[in-house]
Amino acid sequence: MDYLNLRRQTLARNLKNDDGMDALLVTNPVNVTYLTGFTGDGSYLVASDKKYILVTDARFEQQVKEECEGIDVHVRPHSKTIAEAAGEVLTKAGTKSVGLEADHATLGATDALQQAAPKVTFAAAKTRVESQRVIKDPSEIEQIRAAVRAAERAFSMFKATIREQDTEKDLVNAMEGYIRRSGARGAAFPPIVAVGERGALPHAPPTDRALGEGSKLLVDWGADMLYKSDITRTFKSPFGTAPTRRNKHERVGFDFDKVYDVVAAAHDAAVAAVRDGAAAKDVDAAARKVIAAAKFGDYFTHGLGHGIGLEIHEAPRIRSNSTDVLESGMVITIEPAIYIPDWGGIRIEDDYLVTKDGATRLTTLPRDPGAIG
Amino acid sequence: MDYLNLRRQTLARNLKNDDGMDALLVTNPVNVTYLTGFTGDGSYLVASDKKYILVTDARFEQQVKEECEGIDVHVRPHSKTIAEAAGEVLTKAGTKSVGLEADHATLGATDALQQAAPKVTFAAAKTRVESQRVIKDPSEIEQIRAAVRAAERAFSMFKATIREQDTEKDLVNAMEGYIRRSGARGAAFPPIVAVGERGALPHAPPTDRALGEGSKLLVDWGADMLYKSDITRTFKSPFGTAPTRRNKHERVGFDFDKVYDVVAAAHDAAVAAVRDGAAAKDVDAAARKVIAAAKFGDYFTHGLGHGIGLEIHEAPRIRSNSTDVLESGMVITIEPAIYIPDWGGIRIEDDYLVTKDGATRLTTLPRDPGAIG
User: Fold this and answer.
1) Which residue of B has its CA nearest to A105?
2) Where in chain B is the domain with CATH 3.90.230.10?
3) What pLDDT does residue B370 have?
4) A200·B62 Cβ contact <8 A
5) Higher model confidence: residue A293 or residue B237?
């Protein structure tokens, strides 16, 4: 099945039904990749119900030949900007009104295009390609599964090799290496390794804190196989009992196991609420209710999850103010958490495929992956 | 010296002189970092001649405290979007007209801000922060030097460890590890390791081609220490003589040493043309003239160089259609190249500080770094 071609056909059909727009100018490189398979950047795709033209430059000429089929290619000379080249292509094609990607085209790029093609009318268009991307086709689901497998394989290496004296920075770097060794292009995002109370920072940047200097360990990582995966696990210190390992910054007063069980229950409640047709905010609420009932409501300070695919964060958004509705074929993260300042954070994150009746877990790593270190 | 504060004072002074704009909304995370030191993302900075307010969310609350001094912070609840929160801050501050960053604000973001702050007039503003960033202050030059040092140290490891059977993918992954081991956050961009004729692709993605299967090796890498470095070296195969190592894809007819000497001479001609006040396009022309005189004019298919700093590609642009003028304090790459399809490519890239009378080379790695492998 030529899924790339199917995607272009679907977009072309949607564009045809959109009165008054002769073409869509796809400027977001992720959307260009989705529609053509081209993995470089700095290239625009002119999309219409009749034709697709990729406007690129000589740096990528060979790569386009290797990666793309069935696409016309316009190679701009290095003396012309991408806006000038795209403007020429649009003018030559006789397009009168062109949609721009509202979530990617900047005010400056819009202005440059307008100057390059004064006869064309440009206007912000609906996020058509993003709307298509939100439902994954079978080839995409397989690629996300591959990214999950690579992340899980990397975790096995991580688990087998970590040492008490390794710092957060050491471990982030090591994880990046394991993810690549597992066949990925790299980490899907800078891995998070947070020791002790540093887990209370949802996006903790790595420090020189050693693994042995803390009673908890939070690891958030994913693989980039073009498609992305995203997993989080939280542990008690693998080195000795938790109280022994507590560092001077970690405050007491909360029991790891009890907080962990609340997050796990919130995770399960959210998964149970997932199905085709469920409002994303209701899934968020299902988790939030469990955490609030345990009196930790103020400590779950971000949304419950997000779509994953070519981007690590994409639609749908699963949070209290989301208007998104879940549909079969969406792939999402579920990642409830409790962050207690100066104590630490517990987050449990897995990847799920939304189905007609529920959710299929794509992560295969056990929630408690056993002894670590 | 508090350079962050100095940068904010300079911007405030420029804003005050800009009639009719009450504030600039800095949405580009790189510009937010430049002005505040905050290294997270998803945060906007409201800048006026009176005050700076960072609009962020709870994920970054602790990090902002650690990284920023002298900035007011507005933490949005997770039920509000960044546009809603920024709109509120701007409305509450009584701003009437707000500049948006033309090269970052999208049509969609502009629309969301307008809806969130209906009384405020938003308009594309000059690229003020980018214009400031183009001239590096002493702390920035030191940080770029540190990024050069890390890249060079990584290259020593690379050079010491490469093996005949390593593939381009292996070597890209290894280089990423060495760059991190050298103290960087990671590679400044995905390293390029191109064997044999693959060097003819300026942005060659890594394949399973082994180092031993080719008569040439091109390596393009840099370190991300928040500030970036960018270096390229090209070699004859380290394993045996070049003809012995030629693979079946590599066509003959060009002498490596002769092509190399043309690129080296073009590099030196460009460096000799660099000085405060030189037109960037004249520096590009100085290199291009040498390459054209050797009849390789059609094979130098990209611009000569670019600024580096917080971003790997930033102003000035050094190419034939550039209108930029070099000034003391700019930091640039010089990277002439010759790409011969099915034969290979030779590129020599170093980083330079523009001075009153010329250029100071920041790279310390010799052009010919000696035996490799």
Assistant:
1) B106
2) 138-361
3) 67
4) yes
5) A293
